[in-house]
Design a protein that fits this description.
Helices cover 42% and strands 14% of the residues. The protein has 34 helices and 26 strands. β24 and β25 form a beta hairpin. The longest helix has 28 residues.
Length: 899
């Protein structure tokens, strides 16, 4: 029989093996005796730890280990003597020089039988076994909950292993879905492992637990798509009506493997013959040709072979469409023989998903409007933020206040960079679908009143000439038949779509803004495209068609960079009052750039013929200059010295400004010389990538030399947001901890227990999420190596797909384990039944919108049973959402709940 005698001992050195001396725990005894003597002199734990060069936590762990080690020594000695056949009395004489200690021996022997179950030692053994000689094991936050021990016991187990020579390092793993963000992972490693060994091989970090997911009841991962035969698909070419519905996939109703479920429309991918796929918006049609179940509408002409109209599937078993299928975006059905089959529909988005798009005004659009509207919306944004801050400052629960102040400050800082403003009244995002019978000045939009005027804006937004002004026609029979009371879709014809920056109907969206009606207070500036020379009917694929093998092709990887340059130029030109014909030149070039990689367009000839260098010199200072106004500079890249993560002490208590501490990290800058040999160019300070707006304390430093009043308005807006962020942080620092109420703990004991259980479940997700990130990073690296020409968008999509699959594999899902705080549990929190540390953890794992709702309750509209019945009845009789809302005096969003 062997026992873990060496666990819990300090590192050993010298010629003798561990435990070979007369008293292998003499050092332990010296340590404990010293502690005892210092405590007798009145020294505190903190003072004793400092005298030994230890942190208080390290001291406590070491003390626990040495106490445990002495105990293990006595137990081991007693059990070994017993194995040699000695009686309990004889063992007492040998160990304690007294036969009367027989009961003590009996106790030691009983404890010895339980020693194998000792949590700390068993945990240390399990960890050591998992590490072996080559593994790196995740021992970070939440691991203790997975294996059912306290954090203290895990810390002691790790200290035992560190004393035995194992290494513990903290490394950073890139977050797949948050570029530039990292997850810090605490890792246990074999003896002799250096930090760099782990950081360079994060893909080798494994979890202590072997995960298995629950058969799909909670977590979902996409399956390889099921294909339909191309014989079931008809192509409607552009010259035969397909142009009017370009991107629309029409489905026969009642076909089992082509079911949209509860949706009337969805953005989908459908595999064909196992080699190609259809991409577009799927809707049901009651006018289908005989012999087919799918009609695909395209702008291509009928001389293009059928299969060339479809997209080729990618050689990637995890993502053959190069797109992210939404959670539960696939389904299964029973065939005629009762067999379960995977349906052919793969949804990216479906009815209702577009309704959740954020409602705000991008500077790309608003900055091209009149100054009074700009100032009005920016002021409204500040007023909304100020109102939010005032409500937070009035909160009585300090922990909740601190959490919301931190979120508020972060939100203000982010808003100062993206410069988005408050939405206009009743503004909404809608996906567009074709209703060919509508006139060029009409729109089918059941969320809006029949006859009112709306303006449409699509991004990227080149100028006011791309804003169609339309009248709502909800009486259109085709629109009513196709869309009915669509929550987040509108119908327009192909000509209107073309004016929307050349939109098609494969899932493109638009912002709908009620405006420009005689009684409307909102006036949107639009302009006639004919004012912009050479834009009307401009087709970049014809004007700048490249010659295979001759024309320099724009790599897909560089498209984003070139688009950024021309977009910034258009913004700067607009702010500086460029003439319409100059704007037209820049817009034409942007249209060439965006299609150049896909169609092999001659973007260099476009640059020359549209005299882009001349425009850059005039409006940005020189032909090779970049962003020159605040609006184009705000998001421009800036590199600043690498800093440590923000801590409370980094916040100035008087001003709320953040002064982050530099890490001081440096690296060797290597360059290859003309002979191909790498040479060191010296040490450089490590930097991180950020934006120019985030890097400055004063937005006015980004203004151009002679700023336009619009530019100044945005600078003042950004500074107001930065100021509010500082006020929030200043109050955050001044907010004290909560005082726990013992009586409240008793009154709300059930609620506290419920919150603890929910929190425990949420925290158990942390190790799983870390492992998912590790697996996804490994998968993504392999895919990138196999596809070196991937663009940033392709890498992003592949990463998201890899993360979705990895989360399903390990059972990680933050949304499924979020702490959902009930009203009664909130009452317990407000009464002081939950401690500061516990409440902080709860808030960090709860839905922030739900917390805000609980902390600042709003008056909700109550709909009576009779009102609800009336709403449903009117909707069933064909009234639009807007008509029902007007008749009942409710908002459209309230009516939508009864659709």
């Amino acid at each position: 029989m062997s026992y873990l005698a060496h666990y819990g001992t300090p590192r050993h050195s010298g010629r003798y093996p561990w435990g070979s001396g007369d008293n292998p725990y003499q050092h332990n005894a010296d340590f404990l005796r010293t502690v005892k003597e210092m405590k007798a002199k009145g020294k505190s734990e903190k003072e004793i730890a400092a005298s030994m060069g230890l942190k208080t936590t390290e001291f406590r762990n070491k003390q626990s280990i040495y106490v445990n080690a002495e105990k293990v020594d006595r137990i081991n000695r007693a059990m070994k003597l017993k194995e040699h056949g000695y009686s309990n009395v004889k063992i007492a004489e040998l160990m304690f020089n007294s036969a009367s200690k027989e009961s003590t021996v009996r106790s030691l022997l009983n404890q010895g039988e339980k020693l194998k179950e000792d949590t700390c030692i068993n945990t240390a053994e399990a960890l050591a076994k998992k590490v072996g000689t080559k593994n790196f094991v995740d021992v970070g936050t939440g691991v203790e909950r997975e294996i059912g021990i306290t954090k203290t016991r895990l810390d002691v187990s790790l200290q035992i292993l560190k004393e035995a020579g194992y290494e513990v390092h903290s490394v950073k793993v890139p977050q797949i879905n948050q570029k530039g963000q990292y997850t810090t992972t605490k890792v246990l490693c074999p003896p002799g492992t250096e930090w760099k060994d782990v950081q360079q091989h994060t893909d080798k970090i494994v979890s202590l637990e072997e995960y298995s997911h629950d058969g799909g009841q909670t977590f979902w991962a996409p399956e390889y798509p099921s294909s339909i035969s191309s014989n079931r698909v008809a192509v409607r070419y552009g010259n035969k009506g397909g142009l009017e519905k370009d991107g629309v996939i029409e489905l026969r109703r009642g076909v089992a493997d082509l079911d949209l479920g509860d949706s009337h429309y969805a953005q989908v991918r459908i595999a064909v013959d196992g080699t190609h796929y259809l991409k577009g918006m799927a809707i049901y049609s009651d006018n289908m040709p005989k012999g087919v179940d799918v009609v695909f509408n395209t702008n291509k002409t009928s001389d293009v072979p059928k299969m060339d109209v479809f997209k080729k599937m990618k050689d990637d078993p995890d993502n053959p469409f190069g797109a992210t299928i939404k959670a539960n975006g696939q389904y299964h059905y029973k065939d005629k023989d009762g067999n379960t089959k995977l349906g052919a529909i793969n949804k990216l988005k479906e009815e209702g998903d577009w309704d959740h798009y954020s409602k705000n005004l991008a500077s790309q659009f608003l900055s091209k409007q009149q100054l009074p509207l700009i100032k009005k919306q920016l002021k409204l944004s500040i007023d909304n933020r100020q109102d939010e801050l005032d409500k937070i400052l009035k909160m009585t629960n300090p922990v909740v206040k601190r959490k919301l102040l931190a979120d508020f400050a972060e939100g203000c800082d982010s808003q100062a960079v993206d410069l988005k403003a408050a939405a206009l009244p009743r503004q909404s995002a809608k996906v567009i679908l074709p209703v060919s019978s509508l006139k060029d000045n009409e729109i089918y939009a059941p969320s809006y009143k029949n006859g009112e005027t709306v303006c449409l804006v699509r991004f990227p937004h080149g100028g006011t000439f791309e804003i169609p002004e339309l009248k709502v026609n909800n009486k259109n029979p085709q629109g009513k038949s196709m869309l009915g009371n669509a929550i987040d879709a509108v119908g327009i014809n192909a000509k209107v779509a073309e004016r929307l920056s050349g939109a098609d109907f494969d899932g493109d969206t638009t912002v709908v803004i009620p405006s420009n009606s005689p009684r409307s207070k909102v006036k949107i500036t639009t302009s006639d495209i004919s004012e912009y020379t050479g834009l009307k009917d401009f087709d970049p694929k014809i004007a700048y068609r490249g010659v295979e093998g001759v024309t320099a092709k724009l790599p897909e990887k560089r498209k984003g960079l070139e688009m950024g340059k021309i977009s910034n130029l258009i913004t700067d030109m607009t702010l500086k009052g460029a003439k319409p014909d100059e704007i037209a030149r820049a817009v034409r070039h942007s249209m060439v750039v965006i299609d150049a990689p896909k169609h092999g367009l001659d973007y260099k000839r476009s640059y020359e013929e549209n005299r882009i260098a001349e425009l850059k010199k005039k409006y940005q200072g020189s032909s090779d200059a970049g962003a020159s106004t605040l609006l184009s500079r705000a998001k421009s890249v800036a590199y600043v010295p690498e800093t440590k993560q923000i801590r409370l002490k980094d916040i100035d208590p008087k001003t709320g400004e953040v002064h982050l501490e530099p890490t001081g990290r440096t690296y060797t800058d290597w360059k290859r010389n003309k002979d191909g040999v790498w040479e060191s160019k010296g040490e450089k300070v490590a930097t991180v990538k950020t934006s120019k707006m985030a890097a400055t304390n004063d937005a006015r430093t980004l203004l151009s030399k002679n700023p336009n009043p619009k530019e100044v308005a945005y600078a003042d807006y950004a500074n107001s947001l930065k100021s509010m962020a500082n006020i929030a942080r200043k109050n955050l620092v001044a907010t004290q901890n909560i005082e726990t109420n013992a009586q409240a703990k008793k009154v709300y004991a059930a609620e506290v227990a419920s919150l603890n259980a929910k929190l425990n479940r949420a925290l158990q997700n942390a190790p799983k999420e870390r492992q998912a990130q590790i697996i996804a990073n490994k998968t993504l690296k392999q895919k990138q190596a196999a596809n070196p020409d991937w663009t940033a968008d392709e890498i992003k999509r592949a990463g998201q797909q890899a993360l979705t699959a990895a989360r399903a594999k390990v059972g990680a899902s933050k949304s499924n384990v979020q702490v959902d705080i009930t009203d009664r549990e909130w009452a317990a929190i407000q009464a002081g039944a939950v401690s500061t540390s516990k409440l902080t953890q709860i808030l960090n794992n709860a839905d922030s919108d739900r917390v805000k709702q609980l902390a600042s309750p709003k008056n909700t509209v109550t709909v009576s049973a009779s009102q609800a019945a009336r709403i449903k009845s009117m909707l069933n009789f064909g009234y639009t959402q807007a008509e029902v809302a007007e008749a009942t005096g409710l908002s459209v969003s309230t009516v939508n709940k009864y659709l």
